[in-house]
Specification:
Elements: E1 6-9, H1 15-26, E2 30-35, H2 38-49, E3 55-59, H3 65-69, H4 71-78, E4 84-87, H5 100-127, E5 132-136, H6 143-147, H7 157-176, E6 183-187, H8 205-208, H9 210-216, E7 227-229, E8 232-233
Parallel strand pairs: 1-2, 1-4, 2-3, 4-5, 5-6, 6-7
Antiparallel strand pairs: 7-8
Helix pairs in contact: 4-5, 5-7
Length: about 240
């Protein structure tokens, strides 16, 4: 059995996922970097190995039922444990008419992918001494803030509804796991400079990764079923 705590980060080949993997590695985790392109996963893992972090690459397309079905046996045989799951992989599909196509595509990754991976890995997380699930959400999934008009030009039906659905899955999973050691929380990273966030974003990835890393390493008396940005609770 792996003696270090083991974390899986989805969509870890670039952007926030890559930086979350780096920060968890710096905190002493053994980190599995999931990416839908095996070569990109290997390249990202090689970079972090070069920083003397303990990481491994894994081909994981969060919309592939085959990839997801193989996860429990992979973690059991390679590590004998899984402590942290970060559902970070996400898309913000360009919209074209009819919008139902981009809405469906967005839900496949942002909602169904995260749900299927959580379902597959929950038994291993329950067996861990301090299992943590972090769903990488967005303030654009907050019904409260978007209905106040604060989302403005950023609101899109696929992306916003997918993050609102991910938020609800967070609440439901936290409830289902309330009598276990597993904590389930949603993170808003902030508006972050990545391929998705763009150059105008005010935060760099180091800052943007912090919320997910904090939620992945919560102490026993930390929250579960919360929506958080840099230690502050956000309204659903
Ligand atoms: P990014 O740079 O575009 O990275 C997205 C990551 O998700 C990439 O690694 C991408 O892989 C991966 N991905 C997409 N579809 C996938 C699939 N089917 N299977 C596996 N991986 C897949 O975006 P980011 O800004 O780092 O976003 C990370 C998360 O933070 C997302 O959930 C996003 O919604 C959320 N978020 C970001 C911001 C922001 O301001 N940046 C704000 C709020 C929330 P490829 O390289 O193969 O495409």
């Amino acid at each position: 059995m792996q003696t270090k705590q083991v974390a899986l980060v989805t969509g870890a080949n670039k952007g926030l996922g890559f930086e979350i993997a780096r920060q968890l590695g710096q905190k002493g985790f053994f980190v599995v970097l999931g990416a839908r392109d095996a070569a990109k996963a290997e390249a990202a893992a090689a970079t972090l190995c070069g920083e003397n972090l303990h990481v491994r690459a894994l081909k994981l397309d969060v919309t592939s039922s085959e990839d997801i079905a193989s996860l429990p046996a992979y973690f059991e045989s390679e590590f004998g444990r899984l402590d942290v799951l970060i559902n970070n992989a996400g898309v913000n599909e360009p919209e074209s008419e009819p919008r139902i196509h981009s809405v469906r595509k967005t839900f496949e990754t942002n909602v169904f992918g995260a749900f299927a991976i959580t379902e597959a890995l929950t038994p291993l997380l329950k067996a861990a001494p301090a299992g943590r699930i972090v769903n990488q959400s967005s303030i654009l999934g907050s019904l409260t803030l978007i209905s106040d008009g604060q989302g403005g030009a950023w609101t899109k039906p696929g992306y916003t509804a997918s993050k609102a659905a991910l938020n609800m899955l967070t609440v439901v999973a936290a409830y289902e796991l309330k009598d276990t050691k597993v904590k389930v929380n949603a993170a808003h990273p902030g508006w972050v400079k990545t391929d998705m966030g763009g150059d105008a974003a005010p935060l760099d990835v180091q800052e943007g990764a912090k919320t997910a890393v904090e939620l992945a390493t919560l102490p026993e008396d930390g929250p579960t079923g919360a929506f958080v940005h840099l230690g502050k609770t956000l309204p659903w």
